[in-house]
Amino acid sequence: MRRSEFERAVQDEFGGRASSLTVDLVLPSLGDLTADQAIAAGVSPREVWLALCAATDVPLERRYGAGRLEPKRG
Length: 74
Prior knowledge:
This protein is mainly alpha-helical. It is built from four helices and two strands, in the order ααββαα.
C-alpha cells in the first residue's frame, strides 16, 4: 500500500473524520503513535491502515484492498 492509497482508504472509510483520526487517535499497537506519526517514523502505510482499522472496529471485509483505484478499462 502506498501513502496515496492509505490516504484514499482513510478518506473513503472515515469521510470528514479522516484527518482528525490520523492526527489525534493514538494507536497502541504502533507504540502509542498516531497514524501520521507512525508513517513519518517509517512504519508502512499498510501496517498503519490495519492498526487504524483495528482501533476503530472497521469490519474485516473493508480492510483489505482499500485505497486501490479501480483498474482502467480499455
